[in-house]
């Protein structure tokens, strides 16, 4: 499992890579990377087939801990995945855009 820093993630995110947020719904609603799909870590293994196509899946959480486990789960399902070090907290601290709400 590979890990990328927020700078590398920002470049890939701008290119439209699939991003999966493995935090809990309340965390996601409070603020998430625009375009990130909510798939809480405890439900991820059952939802990997719902991840959009792409060469690499970027997995993000609050700080980078849960995303490492999430990336392992995605890889076990046969997809290439990386964990985003620094997570959504780091993304926000850099002044990057955040969406709020659940997308409905």
TrEMBL record:
CDD domains given in the database record: RHOD
Highest taxon, organism lineage: Bacteria
A GO MF term: transferase activity
Pfam short name (any one): Rhodanese
Entry annotated with the keyword Transferase: yes
Annotated keywords: Plasmid, Transferase
Domain Rhodanese: 15-100
Cross-referenced PROSITE patterns: RHODANESE_3
UniProt xrefs under InterPro entries: GlpE_sulfurtransferase, Rhodanese-like_dom, Rhodanese-like_dom_sf
Keyword Transferase: yes
Protein name: Sulfurtransferase
